[in-house]
Amino acid sequence: RAEALAATLEREFARQGLPARLRLIRKGSDLEGAAREAADEGFGTVVAGGGDGTINAVAGAIAGTGARLGVIPLGTFNYVARSLGLPETPEAAVGVLATGRPRPLPLGEVNGRVFLNNASLGAYAKILETRESVYRRFGRSQLAAHWSVVTALAEYRSPLDARVTVDGEARRLHTPLAFVANNAFQLEQFDFHESAERVRGGEFALFLAPDREPFDLIRFAAALGLKQLKPGRDFEMLYGKEIVVETRRPRRLVARDGEREKMTGPFRFLRKDGALEVLAPAEGG
C-alpha cells in the first residue's frame, strides 16, 4: 500500500502546485535522521505522513531549525491532526499544505525528548507494548487498541513508588500511571474540559491513576473510556509547567505519543514553546 499511497500523494502535490520530494521511510529509527536531513537541505516545510508517533519524531527532529511541520494523518487515532482541525484524508491534508497558515505548535519535552500529545511512566508503556503484539495478530484498529488495554492491565504488577515535584512542590505517591498531557483536544475527548483549558493556558496536566488491583484497573480504564470519571473525585490531576518524577528504579520505559523508549531518571517534563510552527487550516477555512 505504501507505494500506491506515495504515487497518490505525488499526484496531489503536483496538482496543488507544490514542489515536493517524497521519501518512504522503512524503519522508524530512520525518521529523525531523514527529517533533519530535509531541514538541513533547506526545505521550508517538512511533512510527516503517519500516526502521532511518526509526527512526533519528525517534530522533534526539526524543532528549532526554522523549518515548519506539515501533517498528513495516516494513523489510528490522529490526535495531532484532529487537534489542528486537519482533514483525515491524505488528499485533503495536502490541500491544507497549499492553503494553510503556520501556527505555533506547543511542544513538551521529557529529558530532552519531544512529545506533542503526552508522555508517561507506568502502565501505559506496558499497554503500548501489548498493543503492538495485538496489532501484529489482528491488524491495526481502534478495537484492537482498546483490547490491548484490557490485556495489559490484567497482567500489570509494577506500580510506581515515586516522588513527584510539580513547579517546586513535592509529594510522594504510589500509582500505576503518571501521565503528562500536552494536548488539550485529547483531554476534551474524555470531557476533561477544565484540564484542557489549563493546557491551552501553557501548563501540563498530570494524570495520576489510583493504586488498584488489576481487575479494578480494568474497570477504571473502562469508566475512563465511557467518560464517567472526574478529576479530583476519581483520580488526581495536577497542573504545572515543570514536572519532575523520581522513581526507586531509575531506568524505566517512557511512553511518548504512542512510542516507548528506556530513559534514566529523574524524569523532567518541560514545556518547549516557540520552537516549531505547523501548517494548519486558515481561520474560517
Helical/strand content category = alpha+beta
Low-confidence regions: none
The number of helical runs is: 10
> Averaging pLDDT over every residue, what do you get?
92
> Per the principal axes of the C-alpha atoms, what is the gross shape?
globular
Strand order of the largest sheet: 5-4-15-12-7-8
How much strand? 25-35%
Helix content: 25-40%
Which features characterize this protein?
285 residues; 6-stranded antiparallel sheet
Explained architecture:
The chain is α+β, with helices and mostly antiparallel strands and 285 residues long. Helices cover 36% and strands 30% of the residues. It contains ten helices and 16 strands. It has helices at 2-15, 31-40, 52-62, 79-83, 90-99, 123-138, 142-154, 184-188, 193-200, 214-225, and strands spanning 45-50, 68-73, 101-104, 107-110, 113-115, 118-122, 160-166, 169-175, 177-181, 204-208, 236-240, 242-247, 251-256, 259-264, 267-272, 277-280. The strands form four sheets. Strands 5-4-15-12-7-8 form a six-stranded antiparallel sheet. The protein has a six-stranded antiparallel sheet with strand order 11-10-9-6-13-14. It has a two-stranded parallel sheet with strand order 1-2. The two termini are 31 Å apart.
Quick overview of this protein structure:
The protein is of the alpha+beta class and 285 residues long.
Break the fold down into its secondary structure elements and pairings.
Layout: H1 2-15, H2 31-40, E1 45-50, H3 52-62, E2 68-73, H4 79-83, H5 90-99, E3 101-104, E4 107-110, E5 113-115, E6 118-122, H6 123-138, H7 142-154, E7 160-166, E8 169-175, E9 177-181, H8 184-188, H9 193-200, E10 204-208, H10 214-225, E11 236-240, E12 242-247, E13 251-256, E14 259-264, E15 267-272, E16 277-280
Parallel strand pairs: 1-2
Antiparallel strand pairs: 3-16, 4-5, 4-15, 6-9, 6-13, 7-8, 7-12, 9-10, 10-11, 12-15, 13-14
